[in-house]
């Protein structure tokens, strides 16, 4: 079961996706959590999420409530035959409003919600676990709307503009051109991006391009067309990027993405 919930108008620009999922899989199945230009929030039911990085940079952890920022290598999710929960994809503005901190400190992390200023509290998680799917979405939406109303800091306008430009162009704006448009030096741009987002502009552009490729690929487009639409030089470049960022060939990634929550 894979159920996408429509984003409330007041949460648009903060939440890109709210998706429920419930899968029964091979107990030895390992799902790849691939990079994207967003923060990932997982609310697990039945069993905690068992996750670590493919490069082994930190030990595997178990999280009922996971918050993770952007990353440039895949996470490995050991399913134990079950994946049951809700995934939220948050924008940088959404991290500030709904988690109470910039997306940058969550870069390459697998944090518990107890480690962030806002997050999903344990009592809400318990009520959601016992509820039906419609009730779960209603409970979560109400919590997010309340958090958004109480938020005190917005994403700085100059950084928001630069982020949106990278998204609209699938990361095809050069760093020097981006700096010129904002009126900053290249060094200042890189420093501000890294402080706010956790990654420099080049990597964020790369994630926007890869995110576009994933969106096209999930629609079933041929890989050569995916490469063109997402802005890669050719299919070979696209394949190399999938191996680098997803740890899989494009075909293996598509089979994994269509068989589990991505």
UniProtKB/TrEMBL annotation:
The keyword Transcription regulation applies. The keyword DNA-binding applies. InterPro entries: AraC_XylS_family_regulators (IPR050204), Homeodomain-like_sf (IPR009057), HTH_AraC (IPR018060). Coiled coil: none annotated. It comes from the Bacteria. It holds the Pfam family HTH_18. Gene3D superfamilies: Homeodomain-like. Residues 149-256 form the HTH araC/xylS-type domain. Keywords: DNA-binding, Transcription, Transcription regulation. This is AraC family transcriptional regulator.
